[in-house]
Every structure is written in structure tokens, then in C-alpha cells.
Design brief:
3-stranded mixed β-sheet; 17 helices; binds beta-D-fucopyranose
């Protein structure tokens, strides 16, 4: 942690003032399939675009892969026990599409479906509510080979996959999430090639945005239809986009990135229209009736938030913008992401103002390079301070009118952090990737205590 990070070292008392939460407030932890499961070639799982990405030169730091990851496929019982010890109410996980439909559609893989039965039943037996995310970025490679999200048919393939899950798990799972972070996997998958499938093409990016929106709408409809009492959300990553410095071209870059990042999915899904610049560019791909297909009634807004992002003009990139730097004296956490707790409060209030619906914070957390000391303990005070500050800002937002219904830490375990491989640890539980030993960090104890004390106050 840098010396300038006073905010993380000593949060001031006033910033930590609390308000009373709803008595049904949900405390949870989040994970995703490709980041933890491993068993990539086991029991009939098919390849995903992330398996391919990991085998592409320069795709992932160190050439790391999700082949083994946290071996959660074999150790899920231990991981559920860890969650039970934390005292969480809920577990947000994702299903790997290629594990249950190895080629994306057609033949079903029963062993894959059985695995999620075990996870769901195990969580329920431990008193933990499973929150199922249908898509967290691992598109079956076979579907990508047929055009993937750039192909309009992908929306229908997704709806069939969602229906399979709804039929199979809907008797026990009532909390459903259509997608995780629409804008991240479309932007980094199709315009700035930092994620699978690593394409740089404006047209494919626009098509992907629209088709993913259509898939979301179709997914909501099938889940609503097949799961009595379903409570459905979609998870959006929203963070303010600020220009690097005040040069006019960077301000312009930030405005366009803001539309791609914060509005291209929330607005059509919740307001029924695209934001101005996206609307103009996306017109050729929109058919009559599409906006009504996309804008379906939702039960809650899932927010993933880490910190603001910075944009600058970059003519070498597909849309003429690239990633900028935060002001040099900005606080950052272990992996260099900006820490601006006020921006979290402001985002919660902006969502409340713009979309007027209940919010569940589905991811918030802090990366680092946490290593055990000689005694084997991991004293991640930087993460505790981050979580404490961000929780305080959530309280502030609630006081100011945001209807926040839950909070999930990213993440339960150190895991495969996409393009950064295993070097960027977000877990409140440390994983030794050589031995698969799990060790709760100091932040895990802190989070367990927080949950207990919040329940006591409720
Ligand atoms: C989010 C992703 C999640 C994880 C965290 C650190 O963008 O949803 O899978 O990588 O960032």
C-alpha cells in the first residue's frame, strides 16, 4: 500500500457513522464459475472462450489459466463450510454454461447439472441462500465459433440455456441474476481486447451490446415464467468515468466511455431506450419491437462497484478512447485501482435517482498481493479499511434515500482474476494455489463480526 493512502490507513470516525439497515438485509459473498471451479476438462465440460483466451499469447499474465483455479469443483463442501463460519446469509455464484451445455446448445451434460445441484443443496443445508448468476463471462467456445454475441441468434441460445437452469434449479433457487457486468465483457471482449474473445471491432461491439440486451430480456421472461416466486436482478458495474486531467479531448473520451460503460445496458433494460450516442450508432442492429423485448420488469438492481475509472483520448483504440490515470496523489489499493468511497455513495444515489428501484450491492472489495506471515496469518488491514469505508458510504447513501437491500463482498476466495491471473488477490479467504489450502484472512473475521453486529442492531 502506498504511503499516500491515509484514507485506508486511518478512516475518520465521522465517515464510519451507521444507520439502521432493513431487518431482511442480505449479507453475502460472491464468486464466479471460471474463477474458482477448475476441473476445466472434467466430467464432460466443454471449452469456453476463457479457456481459449488463457491459451492465447499475451491473453493472461504469466500464461495463468483457470484449469485448476481454486479446485472448487472438488472442494465446494469446504468452501460452503467457510461461508457457514462467516455467517453469511447468501452465496452468489455462477453456472458455467459449457459445463452444463458443452457445445452451448443441444446435448445436456448431466454431470455438470448434478454439480450445481450439490452446490445449491449444500448451501441450503448450511442455511445459506443460493443466488444464481446465469452468465459470468464464460461463453461456450462452440457458440463463439458461430459468431458468439455478435450473432443475434446468441440471445435465443442464452434463453434456452437460462430455461434449462430455471427448470432444473427453480424449485430451490429463487434469486436469479441474468448477467454479470454487461459492459465489461462486451467492451473488453469486442472493443478494447483485454478479455475473451479479444476482438477489436466497433461493429461487433455494437452488435454484442444489443444482442446481450436482447438475451437479458429473453432470460428474464423465461425465468419469470418457469420459477414461481423468482426475484430477478441483473448485475451492472457502474463507476463514475472521469477524464484524465481537463483537456477537452479527454472530457469527450470520458463522455463516450460513460455511455458504453454505465448506460448502454441499464438504460435500455430499465428505461426502454439507449442513451443518445449509443442509440445513433446501434440503430442498424435494432429491429422493430426490440426495445420492448429488452425492457422487462426487474425486481432489483445489482451493483458491482470498486472505484471510479479515468478516460483519455487514444486514437489507437476502436472508439478513440483509452484508459487514463487517476490524479497522481489519489489513494489506490494493492492492485492500483482508485479508492474513492464517496463515489460509491454517489453511485448508489445516482442509481436511485435514475432508475428508482431497490439495489443489491453484488460486488465490492479490494485486491492485493496478500501473503501469509511466518505464523501463516494474513493480516490484510488494507482490505478491512477499504470494506469499512465503503460500508460506511453505503450507510450514508441509505440515509440519503437509497433503498439498499444487500451487500456481497468480492470475493470469498483468492481466485483467477481474469487477465491478471493469480497475482491479484481479492479473497477474504487466502488460497495457497500450490496446496489449495484455505486460510481466512483478518478481513474474513472482520466481515463475520460486522454481519453479527449488524444483525444485532437490526
Ligand atoms: C469484477 C468481476 C469479477 C472480479 C472483480 C474483481 O469486474 O465481476 O469477476 O474479477 O471484478
Amino acid at each position: 500500500m502506498s504511503q499516500t493512502n491515509a484514507i485506508l490507513e486511518k478512516p475518520d470516525a465521522e465517515a464510519l457513522a451507521k444507520t439502521k439497515l432493513r431487518s431482511d438485509f442480505v449479507w453475502g459473498v460472491s464468486t464466479s464459475a471460471y474463477q474458482i471451479e477448475g476441473a476445466a476438462a472434467e466430467d464432460g465440460r466443454g471449452p469456453s472462450i476463457w479457456d481459449t483466451r488463457c491459451r492465447t499469447a499475451g491473453g493472461v499474465v504469466n500464461g495463468d489459466t483457470g484449469d485448476v483455479a481454486c479446485d472448487h469443483y472438488h472442494r465446494y463442501e469446504d468452501d460452503i463450510a467457510l461461508m457457514r463460519d462467516l455467517g453469511v446469509d447468501a452465496y452468489r455464484f455462477s453456472v458455467a454454461w459449457p459445463r452444463v451445455l458443452p457445445r452451448g446448445r443441444g446435448a445436456v451434460n448431466d454431470k455438470g447439472l448434478d454439480f450445481y445441484d450439490r452446490v445449491i443443496d449444500g448451501a441450503l443445508a448450511a442455511g445459506i441462500e443460493p443466488w444464481l448468476c446465469v452468465y459470468h463471462w464464460d461463453l461456450p467456445q462452440a457458440l463463439h465459433d458461430q459468431g458468439g454475441w455478435a450473432n443475434r441468434d446468441c440471445a435465443g441460445w442464452y434463453a434456452d440455456y437460462a430455461a434449462l437452469l430455471a427448470r432444473r434449479y427453480g424449485d430451490r433457487v429463487k434469486r436469479w441474476i441474468t448477467f454479470n457486468e454487461f459492459s465489461v465483457f462486451t467492451l473488453f471482449g469486442y472493443a478494447i481486447p483485454w478479455a475473451a474473445p479479444g476482438i477489436t471491432d466497433r461493429e461487433q461491439h455494437l452488435r454484442a451490446i444489443h444482442h446481450v440486451n436482447l438475451a437479458h430480456g429473453a432470460g428474464v421472461d423465461v425465468i419469470r415464467d418457469l420459477v414461481p416466486g423468482a426475484s430477478i436482478g441483473a448485475v451492472h458495474n457502474r463507476q463514475r468515468v472521469l477524464p484524465e486531467g481537463d483537456r477537452a479531448e479527454n472530457v469527450e473520451a470520458a463522455a463516450l466511455l460513460d455511455e458504453h460503460w454505465n448506460l448502454a445496458f441499464c438504460d435500455p433494460q430499465l428505461l426502454g431506450h439507449y442513451s443518445p450516442r449509443v442509440a445513433k450508432a446501434i440503430e442498424p442492429y435494432v429491429q422493430a419491437g426490440d426495445m420492448a423485448r429488452i425492457c422487462r420488469p426487474m425486481d432489483w438492481f445489482g451493483l458491482n462497484h470498486y472505484g471510479p475509472i479515468f478516460a483519455k483520448a487514444d486514437p489507437t483504440r476502436a472508439w478513440g478512447y483509452g484508459w487514463g490515470d487517476a490524479p497522481p496523489d489519489s489513494p489506490t489499493h494493492g492492485v492500483g485501482w482508485a479508492v474513492f468511497p464517496d463515489a460509491f455513495r454517489d453511485e448508489l444515489l445516482e442509481i436511485t435517482r435514475r432508475y428508482r428501484m431497490p439495489i443489491v450491492i453484488t460486488e465490492n472489495g479490494c485486491g492485493g498481493n496478500d501473503t501469509p506471515d511466518e505464523s501463516g496469518a494474513i493480516d490484510d488491514q488494507h482490505r478491512i479499511n477499504y470494506l469499512r469505508l465503503y460500508n460506511a458510504k453505503m450507510h450514508e447513501a441509505i440515509r440519503a434515500g437509497a433503498d439498499v437491500r444487500g451487500y456481497f463482498v468480492w470475493s470469498l476466495l483468492d481466485n483467477f482474476e481474469w487477465g491478471s491471473g493469480y497475482g491479484n488477490r481479492f479473497g477474504i479467504v487466502h488460497v495457497d494455489f500450490a496446496t489449495q489450502k484455505r486460510t481466512p484472512k483478518a478481513s474474513a473475521r472482520w466481515y463475520a463480526d460486522l454481519i453479527k453486529s449488524e444483525r444485532f442492531r437490526a
